[in-house]
Amino acid sequence: MTQPSFIVHGGTGSWPQEALLDAEKGVREACAAGWKVLEADGSALDAVEAAVRVMEDAPCFDAGRGSYANKLGEVEMDAIIMDGATLNLGAVAAVKGVRHPITLARLVMTRTPHAFIVAEGARMLAEHYGLEMLPTEILLTGDELVYRQRLQVEGLADLHEMFAASAEEASGATGTGDTVGAVARDSRGDIAVATSTGGKKRKLPGRVGDSPLVGSGAYADNEAGGASTTGDGETIMRIVMAKSAVDMMRGGMGVEGAAREAVSHLEARTSGEGGIILIDNQGRVGYAFNTFVMPVAWVDEKGQVQVRVSLG
Ligand code: ASP
To answer: Is 179 known to be catalytic?
Structure first.
């Protein structure tokens, strides 16, 4: 039996000052929920799912309830869960109407012969297994709900206009979100990771970022460690950031060095903004980010939850 380890993040989105207290509370509660599972000798998979479900319910995060609206005022969510013991994984993308996309990703892993199911097929799977569904008006909160309501009154922009405007936008122009993620190592030494997001604000319909892509948004391998990323998906996927960081640890790099190196590489090769949380195969935790804010919570050697929200 080994001492478990746990870390969560709440995304590198453009956090307004007034949301930081909610973010701090949200990552603290999510970390406590995952830790409770690990303390009771539960599995790393159960711990990361429990923590991410808490953040999917907290409207301050861009995942589940609180997701960003796409250009049509719809919510399309992405999630992935990976088991470092077996390298099994389940992922969903561009799925609508599900309260807990991370639980749906786990169903893909455990109840289907597949690894990745998208859009309507993912939604049908959720309905088949009786997962809780929520209308778009509940998934969207605050300004995002106002955006959808305005579209409903004013009518949708002409599709030609939408695609023409999008062609003018630089990569990264639609802003990152407050994606959530968790990495755990349980008392048996098994590592698991989970990442869940509503994606970028005002993305095109059907757009999928790095988050549900194995190796980019998440990776776990008991032999090396686990990683969950957040930030500009179009750049993160170009460096396959989570797997790169896990491979650095496999090569003997320390957990903090690997986190810093992954973010530096993102910045140097793509000018991308992002962050990462890691656990190595000895249970050490690390994180790094190159934005001003990335809420993180982890459990220290004394079993206490520690929280850090920003660089300041
Ligand atoms: N990586 C997410 C995406 O591109 C957004 C984020 O993490 O902030 O969909």
So the answer is: yes
